[in-house]
Specification:
There is one protein chain. Helices cover 20% and strands 25% of the residues. It is an alpha+beta fold. It has one domain: Glucose Permease (Domain IIA) (Distorted Sandwich), CATH 2.70.70.10. The protein has a 7-stranded antiparallel sheet with strand order 2-3-11-7-6-5-9. A 4-stranded antiparallel sheet has the order 1-4-10-8, with no helix packed on it.
């Protein structure tokens, strides 16, 4: 019996260590998606994908804000309405992740719901100020603030290097960069 136990221990110890699941995932799943390294007047990006492609949680977290109504009007062009249908989560890393211009928000996605990395939150679309454009996901990374603070929620950090890493399965955390952005904003 000892011989078999020793053999089992030796066999198990020679196997490679299991890789932990990635902490971060690319926010568009199971679809071709591209994004440029530019955005108009604030730090964010637009991820181009077909309408209906899955917008997924880029990290485990808790849903913070959900907008289920597209109230945007070109006549008023209110900033708070520009995102159309949208979802933001506070990741377990303390960072806010925001996706907007969605065509649909998944049933059950509401403030306070705990989500896991890769869980579908909604579908890519062109609601809000993206009405009439090609479908895309507006993706913003920011620090948490009071609910409804749309100027911060839409993005305070250019996300490209994080998206580049997540797209190939590498974990790259925006935590330090977000802390620096928050510090700079407080001065």
């Amino acid at each position: 019996m000892k011989k078999y136990l020793l053999a089992s221990i030796l066999l198990l110890s020679s196997l490679p260590a299991a890789q932990a699941a990635p902490i971060y995932v690319f926010p568009v799943a199971n679809c071709a998606a591209t994004y440029g390294k530019y955005h108009h007047d604030y730090p964010a990006t637009d991820i181009q994908a077909k309408k209906g492609c899955a917008f997924v949680a880029p990290i485990n977290g808790t849903v913070e804000d959900v907008n289920l109504k597209d109230l945007w009007s070109g006549k008023t062009n209110l900033g708070k309405d520009r995102g159309g249908l949208s979802v933001s989560i506070i990741g377990e890393d303390g960072v806010r992740y925001y996706g907007s211009h969605l065509s649909k928000v998944e049933p059950g996605i509401e403030p306070g719901v705990v989500v896991t990395a890769g869980q579908k939150l909604g579908e890519v679309g062109s609601t809000g100020s993206a009405r009439g454009t090609k479908p895309h996901l507006h993706f913003g990374i920011s620090y948490p603030t009071k609910p409804g603070d749309w100027k911060i929620r839409r993005g305070v950090l250019y996300p490209w290097k994080y998206l580049d890493a997540w797209k190939v399965g590498k974990d790259l955390s925006p935590v330090k960069a977000i802390a620096a952005a928050k510090e700079k904003a407080s001065k």
